[in-house]
Predict the 3D structure of the following.
Amino acid sequence: MGKLKLKCTTTVTYEVEIEIDTDIYDNEWIKDFESYMHDLPDGVQSLALHVAHSHLAHGEGYMIEGVGWVTRKGKLAYPKDKEAAPGINIIPIQDEFEPNEWEVEDLEKTEG
């Protein structure tokens, strides 16, 4: 019997809400962030995308570059000895670790 290897392209969608206190993360904060990190062309909306991307790419308990440790559902999961960045909270919309959508888009034969 032979072996068949297939490469699968899969898309997984997670939905989160990002709460940002715009009294803290104002235009002055955005300009300061841009001076040492990267551009946020749409201001606070771009910051929300930066936070969401970092959180979903690295997981809970990861320090978000340029921002700090953020809360998830109002709590700092870990590390417990760190102080949360004020004014940013991530709220998952779906059940823990359950994607809202998933799809296998392509199968490609890679060997055999």
